[in-house]
Each structure stands twice: as C-alpha cells, then as structure tokens.
Amino acid sequence: VQLQAYGGGLVQAGGFLRLSCAASVRTFGSLTVGWFRQAPGKGREFVASIRRNGDNTDYPDSVKGRFTISRDNAKNTVYLQMNSLKPEDTAVYYCAARYSVSYSDTSRSYDYWGHGTQVTVSS
C-alpha cells in the first residue's frame, strides 16, 4: 500500500485547506484511513479517521466541528477538509491506513504511511 498526501500550504488564520490522500492499492475499500499531524517538537497527533464504508468517522475535540474527513473509494482517495484554521493547526500532516474495521486514534495501529504535507497557518 502506497499513500501520497498532498494539498498542504500556507493559509491565514480562519482560512481553509483540503488535503488529499491517494492510495495505490486495489483493496482501498478495505482500508481504514486516518490523518495525523506532527508539529515541531511534538509527538504525532490523531486528527481524523474514516472507516471502510465512509459512514463512520472520528475526530479529537481539537478539530471536531472544523475538520471533515471523507473518502471516494472509486478514486482511491481520502480527503480532509479543514476549515476555520488556527495557528495551532500548523504541522506536517500524514495519512495512514490499516486493514481493520475498527476505530483507532493511535499511530502505532496504522501499518501504512504516506509522506507528510506541510500545513502552515499564519496569525
């Protein structure tokens, strides 16, 4: 499973970005996909996850109501719509995947990782 995250950039506080995670695998529909982020000097933080059918999503309180994860299995792609961005959202964002139907907000539970994409929110 190869994952490629893209769509990061520089945005002002209050702005929005949409990240994409494209997977090169035939079994994309069997994957639970998550987004994590890592700010300088900090650990990797869970941001969102979406399960196989796309109906079940999970978010931490820090992004709930501002971020939305979705998927298009026909395009082997998961999206992270980020609205009302704050400077504290600045980080490298990673997408990750696992062959499991269950929810997980722990990075070590994910087996496949893409390279990150930088998101910078200016105040």
Q: Any overview of this molecule?
A:
With 123 residues, the chain is mainly β. The chain is 0% helix and 48% strand. Strand 5 (44-50) and strand 6 (57-58) form a beta hairpin. The chain is globular, with a radius of gyration of 13 Å.
Tally of helical segments? 0
Mean pLDDT, to the nearest integer, reads 95
Q: State the shape.
A: globular
In oligomeric terms, what are we looking at?
single chain
Topology order in helix (H) and strand (E) letters? EEEEEEEEEEE
Give the strand content. over 45%
- Ends apart, CA distance between termini: 37 Å
SS content category: mainly beta
Rg for CA atoms: 13 Å
Question: TL;DR?
Answer:
The protein has strands at 3-6, 9-12, 17-23, 32-38, 44-50, 57-58, 67-72, 77-82, 91-98, 112-113, 117-122. With 123 residues, it is an all-beta fold.
Keywords:
4-stranded antiparallel β-sheet, single chain, globular, mainly beta, 123 residues, 7-stranded mixed β-sheet
Please give the structural blueprint.
Elements: E1 3-6, E2 9-12, E3 17-23, E4 32-38, E5 44-50, E6 57-58, E7 67-72, E8 77-82, E9 91-98, E10 112-113, E11 117-122
Parallel strand pairs: 2-11
Antiparallel strand pairs: 1-3, 3-8, 4-5, 4-9, 5-6, 7-8, 9-10, 9-11
